[in-house]
Structure formats: structure tokens, C-alpha cells
């Protein structure tokens, strides 16, 4: 059995990232390097998301802005913000993950990486308690609204 916070389905991971208030970790299965991201939707926009990287011990406060994602009809583009570093391994890792998932047919998460969420709804960030909600990364009300 897989852990319910480990999303194995690429479409589900992609939907989770663009839920509006997502927190997730990418883990390299080769090096065990891990980066935790927060991706939040820009208010009144369906195509722009701000990306922050966890840089300290406080999982709620220690995030630093690294850039933004613009979504299009077929692909997403990660762009370094003014304070972002496009050559930082965390930036490169998220960019690689987005391209790998979006360019695979069928959608697939590459074997060399795991996608973990922290047990909060990707849309509203409330804690998830129901096993089905935990597995999909969305609470029941948010799942009914769709992504």
C-alpha cells in the first residue's frame, strides 16, 4: 500500500499543484534531496500562480518567494521572480517536474521523483481528515467545485 500523502497519478499531482493553495514536496529517489513548495493562485486569475520555497524549520512561515507559474492551454511556464534564482536546484527541480509531467503521454510522474502533499486541501488549505480526501488532496466541498 502506498502512503495516502504520496500522489502517484500525474494528473492528480498536476491538479493538486494548481488547486489554488497547494503545499507539496518533491523528493528525488536518486539523491533523497527534497524541496517543499507552496503554490498559490493569484487573486482573480485562472492562469497565474505564485511559487514559494520552504527555507526554514517553520512549515507555515519560512517560505521565500522564488517565482511564478503562468499556465497555458497545453503547458505551464515557471518564471523566476525578481528575488528568484532560476539556477537554484529547487527552481530547476520544479521546472523539470512540471515539464516532465506535462510532456508525458500518458501523464506520468517520473520514477526518479516522489510527489508528497502535507494532508491539507490543495484549494482551501484546510486539514484533511477523510481517507478519500487525503488520497486525492482535496476536501469534499472543494472536490465538488472541481479544479
Task: Provide structural commentary.
This protein has 147 residues and is of the alpha+beta class. The protein has one domain. It contains four helices and seven strands; from the N terminus they run βαβββββαβαα. A seven-stranded antiparallel β-sheet has the order 1-7-2-3-4-5-6. Strand 4 and strand 5 form a beta hairpin.
DSSP strand count = 7
Low-confidence stretches: none
**What is the CA–CA distance across the termini?**
27 Å
- Alpha carbon gyration radius: 14 Å
Beta-strand content bin: 25-35%
Helix content: 10-25%
Q: Please outline the major beta sheet.
A: 7 strands, antiparallel
Q: List the helices and strands in order.
A: EHEEEEEHEHH
| Shape by Cα distribution | globular
Order of neighbouring strands in the sheet with most strands:
1-7-2-3-4-5-6
Please tally the helical runs, counting DSSP H or I stretches of 4 or more residues: 4
The number of distinct structural domains comes to 1
Structural class determined from secondary elements: alpha+beta
Q: What is the arithmetic mean of pLDDT?
A: 89
List the helices and strands and how they pair.
Layout: E1 6-7, H1 10-17, E2 21-28, E3 34-41, E4 48-54, E5 63-71, E6 76-80, H2 89-103, E7 113-117, H3 131-136, H4 140-145
Antiparallel strand pairs: 1-7, 2-3, 2-7, 3-4, 4-5, 5-6
Essential attributes:
alpha+beta; 7-stranded antiparallel sheet; 7 strands
Question: Outline of this structure?
Answer:
With 147 residues, the protein is α+β, with helices and mostly antiparallel strands. It contains four helices and seven strands; from the N terminus they run E-H-E-E-E-E-E-H-E-H-H. The two termini are 27 Å apart.
Amino acid at each position: 500500500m502506498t502512503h495516502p500523502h504520496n500522489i502517484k497519478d500525474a494528473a492528480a499531482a498536476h491538479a493538486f499543484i494548481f488547486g489554488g493553495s497547494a503545499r507539496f514536496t518533491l523528493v528525488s529517489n536518486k539523491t533523497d534531496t527534497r524541496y517543499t513548495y507552496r503554490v498559490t493562485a493569484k487573486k482573480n486569475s485562472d492562469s497565474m500562480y505564485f511559487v514559494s520555497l520552504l527555507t526554514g524549520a517553520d512549515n507555515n512561515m519560512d517560505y521565500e518567494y522564488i517565482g511564478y507559474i503562468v499556465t497555458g492551454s497545453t503547458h505551464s511556464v515557471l518564471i523566476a521572480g525578481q528575488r528568484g534564482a532560476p539556477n537554484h536546484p529547487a527552481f530547476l527541480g520544479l521546472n523539470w517536474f512540471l515539464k516532465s509531467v506535462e510532456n508525458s503521454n500518458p501523464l506520468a510522474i517520473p520514477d526518479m521523483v516522489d510527489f508528497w502533499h502535507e494532508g491539507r486541501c490543495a484549494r482551501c488549505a484546510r486539514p484533511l481528515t477523510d481517507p478519500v480526501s487525503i488520497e486525492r488532496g482535496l476536501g469534499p466541498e472543494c472536490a465538488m467545485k472541481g479544479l
